[in-house]
Amino acid sequence: MGVRFQDKVAIVTGAASGIGRAVALGFAREGARLALVDRDVEGLRETAMEAGTALTFVSDVGAPGTAEADAAAVLTTYGQIDILYAAAGFSTGGTVLTTTPEDWDAVMRVHVGGTWLWARAVIPAMRRQGGGAIVTTASQLAIAGGAGNSAYIAAKGAILSLTRCMAMDFVADGIRVNAVVPGAIETPLLRRSFARRSDPGAAEASSVARHAIRRLGRAEEVAEAVLYLASDAASFTTGIALPVDGGWLAA
Ligand SMILES: NC(=O)c1ccc[n+]([C@@H]2O[C@H](COP(=O)([O-])OP(=O)(O)OC[C@H]3O[C@@H](n4cnc5c(N)ncnc54)[C@H](O)[C@@H]3O)[C@@H](O)[C@H]2O)c1
């Protein structure tokens, strides 16, 4: 694989862990100048060290004003913003009865709000430059459905709708907007979600069995799809939801 992002500036939210970290390292390997955002100071430092060099922002993606300030700092340092990958997120579990209003707000604020606020912060620069690529992070559960994670699944559905809407709103500006749709991917988020269940081992086994490929995915496998969607190789692709789900949605 050549170096696809040599002249590009990429921002990754949720870069301290899991899929965001794998994407950040993928961009770094392929020559991008990086700005990494996460609320986890230590994890962010580790990703930045592995990436070689990166601007880092210890920020809450859901806090109004933060994305704008961070994006302005990226522009001051690098002079351009070509790519945004929005991965920051977490889940709490719970039906509508067992999710607190506070958890509902927090999940919606981080996933939907964080994606919206960051898109809003980078689109003006992409417009001025004549184009850009935004990749959002949905979930197979937003398409197939799922139980016991009402706020998270609602948020992922909203991200899919927002992705398509942004793709249409900015197509004339040369900005492509696509979603990646991971299946169950081996990350700390997934581990925490299994640990919440009464029998974590059984929860994992049943998740593995839902994938036609019969295993959990790896963050690097999702990163490959994100890098593709962010690259010029995907120049005719906008408004899609690309599953990387081991066959979950086909089964
Ligand atoms: N792991 C899976 O099975 C799976 C499946 C489908 C979708 N996803 C999605 O992929 C994305 C990445 O998840 P992951 O599995 O790599 O999880 P992860 O927990 O490994 O990484 C998520 C990162 O987001 C950061 N984060 C959370 N809230 C934040 C906030 N308010 N501001 C800034 N940073 C914040 C965390 O600190 C963490 O570093 C999430 O959007 C998740 O919903 C994951």
Question: What labels describe this entry?
Answer:
globular; binds nicotinamide-adenine-dinucleotide; Rossmann fold; 9 helices
Short structural description:
With 251 residues, the protein is of the alpha/beta class.
SSE layout and pairings?
Blueprint lengths: L8 E5 L4 H12 L3 E6 L2 H11 L3 E4 L7 H13 L4 E4 L14 H29 L2 E6 L3 H4 L5 H20 L5 E8 L5 H8 L4 H11 L8 H12 L10 E4 L7
Parallel strand pairs: 1-2, 1-4, 2-3, 4-5, 5-6, 6-7
Helix pairs in contact: 1-2, 1-9, 3-4, 4-6
Characterise this structure.
- By secondary structure, the protein is an alpha/beta fold.
- The protein has one domain (9-241): Rossmann fold (3-Layer(aba) Sandwich).
- The chain is built from nine helices and seven strands; from the N terminus they run E-H-E-H-E-H-E-H-E-H-H-E-H-H-H-E.
- The protein has helices at 18-29, 41-51, 66-78, 101-129, 141-144, 150-169, 188-195, 200-210, 219-230; strands at 9-13, 33-38, 55-58, 83-86, 132-137, 175-182, 241-244.
- The chain has a seven-stranded parallel β-sheet, with helices on both faces.
- Helix 3 packs parallel to helix 4 and helix 4 runs parallel beside helix 6.
- The radius of gyration is 17 Å and the shape is globular.
- 47% of the residues are buried.
- The model has no long low-confidence stretch (mean pLDDT 97).
- The protein binds nicotinamide-adenine-dinucleotide (NAD).
- The site of nicotinamide-adenine-dinucleotide (NAD) has 27 residues, from helix 1 and helix 7.
